[in-house]
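User: I've been trying to design a sequence by hand for this structure and keep getting stuck. Would you show me what you'd pick, starting by listing the structure so we're on the same page?

Assistant: Good idea, let's start from the same input. This is the structure you sent:
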């Protein structure tokens, strides 16, 4: 059928954030992979997902530090998920042996090879551990600068019109749809600050949806507030909701998706700027509708300074994530060398058989 790609964790201005639990709810079976770096967890999950893509919707949860790597794969129609349960996203079973099962890929290690490199492995682990706090500290400085950016537009915004516009958008998006049930809510990240910079899977997520709303605006022009109000109204009406948090500031929302009514509404401004491509696409321009005309021009010099300082913090934070990835690659090399991948292949095939039996 298809594949959906997203992040469930994030390297944010608030530190490492983990939304895994929200996405694992309502599953019958959860396989938690254990093992070290480089012993095939991501490849294992990719191969499992590819095995089901032609028949079912497969959800791929990408690593927030390296988007090319996977943290999990879920096939909701079959009621199962497979996740990387190693740090920093350690997953503790709620009903061990009944819902969650461990799959120990460490069984494929030739441990004597690892022991000969123990000092180098420990040294790399220590160096990696230093990189992430430095990245988060840089992002934290960046969010304070972003607050300065927002303040300019907040001080020039018409809040009465903002409330009126929000009510109109809520009515247009949700229409008369209502369900006599409790809504299911899944929390995810819209994008992620990775070793390659800002990455998102917006195009993949919005492509199959019929009703698409593109929110345009500036920092502080009310985009996240509108989405939060929309989320609350949708839950009151019993609609299932996919909530996508900002990968930089997890307290802010960037996208809301309603699968039952084939609808999505999202913040379509930089660094995730997308443009309408269908006649049915709708643009909601918060800057044009709510902010005093000429604000960009009036504060151009101040805005340029803020943007430059903000970009500097983001660039610094990403540089630490890049350094962590380089060190992680070196660490992986030791584990790849010590892994018997034919054993991993046997475990993969056995897991597929086990899933198919249920």
């Amino acid at each position: 059928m298809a594949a959906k790609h997203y992040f469930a964790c994030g390297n944010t201005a608030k530190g490492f954030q983990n939304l895994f639990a929200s996405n694992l709810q309502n599953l019958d079976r959860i396989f938690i992979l254990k093992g070290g770096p480089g012993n095939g967890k991501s490849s294992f999950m990719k191969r499992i997902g590819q095995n089901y893509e032609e028949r079912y919707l497969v959800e791929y949860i990408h690593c927030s530090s390296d988007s090319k790597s996977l943290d999990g794969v879920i096939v909701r129609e079959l009621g199962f998920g497979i996740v990387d349960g190693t740090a920093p996203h350690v997953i503790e079973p709620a009903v061990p042996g009944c819902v969650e099962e461990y799959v120990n890929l460490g069984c494929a290690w030739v441990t004597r090879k690892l022991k000969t490199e123990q000092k180098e492995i420990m040294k790399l682990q220590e160096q990696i551990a230093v990189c992430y706090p430095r990245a988060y500290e840089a992002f934290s400085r960046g969010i304070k600068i972003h607050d300065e950016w927002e303040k300019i537009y907040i001080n020039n915004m018409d809040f009465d019109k903002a409330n009126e516009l929000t009510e109109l958008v809520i009515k247009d998006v949700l229409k008369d749809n209502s369900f006599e049930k409790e809504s299911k809510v899944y929390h995810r990240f819209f994008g992620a600050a990775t070793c390659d910079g800002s990455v998102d899977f917006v195009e993949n997520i919005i492509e199959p949806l019929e009703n698409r709303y593109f929110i345009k605006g500036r920092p502080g022009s009310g985009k996240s507030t509108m989405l939060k109000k929309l989320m609350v109204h949708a839950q009151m009406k019993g609609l299932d909701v996919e909530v996508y948090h900002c990968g930089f500031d997890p307290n802010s929302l960037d996208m809301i998706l309603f699968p039952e009514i084939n609808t999505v509404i999202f913040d379509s401004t930089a660094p995730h700027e997308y443009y309408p491509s269908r006649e049915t696409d709708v643009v909601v321009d918060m800057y044009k509708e709510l902010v005093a005309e000429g604000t960009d021009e009036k504060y151009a010099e101040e805005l340029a300074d803020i943007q430059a300082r903000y970009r500097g913090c983001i660039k610094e934070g990403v540089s630490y994530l890049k350094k962590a990835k380089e060190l992680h690659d070196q660490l992986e090399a030791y584990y790849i060398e010590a892994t018997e991948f034919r054993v991993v292949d046997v475990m993969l095939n056995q897991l597929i058989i086990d899933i198919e039996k249920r």
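That's my pick for every position. To get oriented when you compare it with your attempt: The longest helix spans residues 300-337. Residues 137 and 292 are 34 Å apart (CA to CA).
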